[in-house]
Specification:
The chain is an alpha/beta fold. It has 2 domains: 2-50 and 112-365, von Willebrand factor, type A domain (Rossmann fold, 3-Layer(aba) Sandwich), CATH 3.40.50; 69-108 and 368-406, no CATH class. It has 9 helices and 14 strands. It has helices spanning 2-18, 128-143, 168-180, 190-200, 238-249, 259-269, 287-304, 313-341, 354-366; strands at 69-76, 91-95, 98-99, 102-107, 115-121, 150-155, 159-165, 211-217, 272-278, 345-348, 369-373, 384-391, 398-401, 404-406. The strands form 3 sheets. Strands 7-6-5-8-9-10 form a 6-stranded mixed beta sheet, sandwiched between helices. A 4-stranded antiparallel beta sheet has the order 4-11-1-13, with helices on one face. Strands 3-2-12-14 form a 4-stranded antiparallel beta sheet. The longest helix is centred in the C-terminal third of the chain and has 29 residues, at 313-341. The chain starts with a helix and ends with a strand.
């Protein structure tokens, strides 16, 4: 038994390097989903980085061919309470400092703007402690969707399980199939999957006059294998990669993209991203606190999989200390993608938190203001544009939403 657990933990390290899963393709998988990741191969990498002036390459960014710019956002006061009684005339919208004319306005249930929602979930065995409750919470989320909403299910091994649909039974069945396969070993590839979602599922009519939403549940451990660049939200040392398996695979374990490419994809897609992170919040904690949390997660996972963690005390502590650093890097990246998109992050400290977290995200989506405008500058140059939304006469209010996009 102890040797089997060692093998399981080793598989976590090695499969996370390769971004592979042992799962069979789902009958509902779209065969070519993930094809956009090929564009980040080393030979063409330079074309996809941000330019020195902060703009994206005009040759290779995915240009969104829609004129109406829809931005959804929260307004809160100093105490963090939502402000929900504002009207169209209360807002000032600026793009690159220029005032814009508001053409679309809604709040909550009024003048409803339909959503295109993608749920990305890491359903690997090492997430097993949280999965049952999370799947149930996701089904309750699906039950709340309105007639005009549609949703897609994507597993964090870069597989499209169910394309956009408003068929709630089909969506729930997709989750049931993932739960059935939940005993598979391997580690999630949340960022590869997120990049494919942003590049491929929110294009053309998929986002025209709709709110694109992505919900990502996972620990973000793939962050360890992103190509290093200046946009990386948490430094990852070569020694950390070596300790987690690079010594066996060499540099081929690194992805062909870095965090900079993810940032560009977020701006191109205009999607709002909500990150759900299973486990404790490691960010800002001391090394001792992070190690203690990692040990707790290790033990919970071992018990869920039927192993006795006390049989491997040395491996348990060494693994937990290393895992604490990896989790901090992954969490930092998931928090950053949510922040860049104007979304938010929630932590699942206990599986029982799942209902509350998914309900909170649904409320956050539906309670947001939506403002749409046709930019005064209609030239589609592939450049980054800055958005600022203000509430007239209330500088103390906080606006949580997207701050830039590429047009």
């Amino acid at each position: 038994m102890r040797y089997f657990l060692v093998a399981v933990l080793f598989l976590k390290l090695v499969t996370s390097l390769l971004g592979q899963s042992a799962s069979d393709p789902s009958p509902r998988s779209t065969k070519d989903f993930g094809h956009s990741l090929e564009r980040y191969k080393i030979d063409g990498l330079k074309k996809h980085r941000s330019l020195p002036n902060g703009d994206a390459s005009t040759d290779d960014v995915i240009k969104v061919r829609t004129d109406l710019i829809v931005n959804n956002f929260l307004v809160t006061d100093k105490s963090g309470s939502k402000i929900s009684n504002l009207e169209r005339g209360d807002f000032l919208v600026l793009e690159d400092g220029e005032p814009q004319t508001i053409e679309l306005f809604s709040i909550g249930e009024g003048s409803y703007v339909p959503c295109s929602i993608v749920l990305v979930i890491d359903s690997s065995a090492l997430q097993a402690f949280y999965l049952n409750k999370s799947f149930n919470a996701a089904k309750l989320f699906i039950d709340k969707l309105e007639r005009g909403d549609r949703m897609a299910i994507v597993s964090a091994d870069t597989k499209l399980r169910t394309d956009f649909t408003n068929n709630k039974s089909l969506l729930k069945k997709s989750l049931d199939l993932l739960e059935t396969k939940g005993a598979e070993f391997g580690s999630g590839a949340e960022f590869s999957t997120l990049l494919a979602v942003l590049n491929e599922l929110f294009t053309g009519n998929d986002i025209k006059n709709r709110m694109p939403i992505v919900i990502v549940q996972g620990d973000g451990n793939e962050m360890l294998w992103l190509k290093p660049d200046s946009e990386i939200p948490y430094p990852v040392s070569k020694s950390l990669r070596q300790d987690n398996g690079m010594r066996f695979t060499g540099r081929k374990s690194l992805r062909d993209f870095g965090f900079g490419e993810i940032k560009i994809a977020i701006e191109n897609s205009r999607a709002t991203i909500y990150s759900i992170i299973p486990g404790y919040d490691f960010i800002g904690l001391s090394k001792k606190e992070r190690s203690a949390h990692a040990l707790s997660i290790f033990d919970n996972t071992a018990r869920t999989l039927g192993f006795q963690e006390r049989n491997l005390p040395l491996l348990r502590r060494q693994f937990a200390e290393r895992d604490a650093e990896v989790r901090t890097a992954g969490q930092s990246a998931l928090v950053k993608v949510a922040d860049l998109s104007g979304g938010l992050t929630r932590f699942l400290e206990k599986p029982e938190d799942a209902d509350r977290v998914y309900a909170d995200i649904f409320s956050n989506i539906k309670d947001r203001y939506s403002i749409g405008y046709y930019p005064t500058d209609q030239r589609q140059t592939g450049k980054r544009r800055q958005i600022r939304i203000e509430v007239k006469g209330h500088p103390e209010y906080t606006i949580t939403g997207r701050k830039s996009y590429i047009y």
